[in-house]
Amino acid sequence: MSGIKIGDLVARKSYNCDILFKVTEIINQSGKERVYILKGVNMRIMVDAPEADLTIQTEKDLHGFERLNHDTVNGRISSIMNSRKSKNNSRGIKSAFLYKSRNSFGRSGKILHLDGDRDYLDMCMEAYRKMELNVQGEYLPESQQANSVGDMLKTYLPDILVLTGHDSVEKNKDFNDINHYRNSRYYVAAVREARRFESSYDDLVIFAGACQSHFEAILDAGANYASSPNRVLIHALDPVFICEKIAYSSVDSIVSVEELVSKTITGIEGIGGLQTRGKYREGLPRSVQLKG
C-alpha cells in the first residue's frame, strides 16, 4: 500500500522536486500504477503523475517553502503599499481605495476575480485586502466560467475581470494546439463571453489564464493580459498584482506592459499583454459632509 494520500504535500522526482504540490485525487487503474492528481501550492498548475515519481515532503521542506513564499509575497506587497503611501502624501491624499484630500476625492477600479481553486482564491483575497483593493471574489471551476461570467458581469459591473484557476500543457506536444492544454479552452470561451458583455478593452480590463496557458489564444479571444508567453508556471498571486497596478493607475495614463509585468512575481516569461488604460479616477469637489 502506498503511503501517499489525498492532502499530502509531494514533489516530482523527474523535475528535481522544483515545485511543491498537494495531492487532490488518486486514480486507481486496474493492473496499472496509481495516478495522482496534483495541484501546485502557490503555482497555478494541475498535473497528474505516477506514484513512482513522487516523494512526500517533510515538515522541514514545507516550512522552508512557506517562509520563502511568505517573504517574497509580503515584500512585494509592502513595496507597493509604501510606494502608494509616498505618492498619496505628496498629493495630500489620506485613504485607500476611496481617496480624499481637502477638496478632491477618487476611486480605484472595481475588480471581479473568478477562480477555479478555492485555496488560490482565499490566498488572492487576503492579498487584495492587504493592498486595500475594491474586489469581489467568487470560486468558479474553469469549465463553468464561460456560462456564468455574463451574469456575474451584469451583477457586479466591474472595471477589471480576472479569469483564472489551474492549467498545464502536455509535455512534448504542439504548443499551438489548444487541445493539448488542460483548461486554456475554457479561459478562451470565458473571455469571448465577457467581450460580448463589454467589447471595449478600456472599459473592461481582462486578465485570463494560469500556468502554461495558451497565451496567444487567450489574447486573440479579447483579453488585455494573459499567461503564459513562454508556457512557464505563474505564481498564484500574479493576477492580483496585475489588478493592483491597473486599479490604481490614472484613467489618463496608458500602463506599459513592461511596467505592469515588472510588478508580478513571475515576470515577462509568464505574463504579457497589451497597452491598457488605468482605472483610477479623481473627482471634485469633496462633499462638505465628508470634510474635516
What would you say this structure looks like, in words?
By secondary structure, the chain is an alpha/beta fold. It has 2 domains: 9-57; 96-283, Rossmann fold, CATH 3.40.50.2300. It is built from 7 helices and 16 strands. The protein has helices at residues 59-91, 118-130, 142-156, 184-197, 215-221, 238-247, 257-261; strands spanning 9-12, 21-27, 35-40, 46-50, 54-56, 98-100, 105-107, 110-115, 134-139, 160-164, 205-208, 225-226, 254-255, 272-273, 276-277, 281-283. Strands 9-8-10-11-12-14 form a 6-stranded mixed sheet, sandwiched between helices. A hairpin with a 5-residue loop joins strand 3 (35-40) and strand 4. Helix 4 packs parallel to helix 5 (215-221). The radius of gyration is 20 Å and the shape is globular. It starts with 8 loop residues before the first strand and ends in a 9-residue tail after the last strand. Residues 89-97 have low confidence and may be disordered.
Write the layout of secondary structure elements.
Layout: E1 9-12, E2 21-27, E3 35-40, E4 46-50, E5 54-56, H1 59-91, E6 98-100, E7 105-107, E8 110-115, H2 118-130, E9 134-139, H3 142-156, E10 160-164, H4 184-197, E11 205-208, H5 215-221, E12 225-226, H6 238-247, E13 254-255, H7 257-261, E14 272-273, E15 276-277, E16 281-283
Parallel strand pairs: 8-9, 8-10, 10-11, 11-12
Antiparallel strand pairs: 1-2, 1-5, 2-3, 3-4, 6-7, 7-16, 12-14, 13-15
Helix pairs in contact: 3-4, 4-5
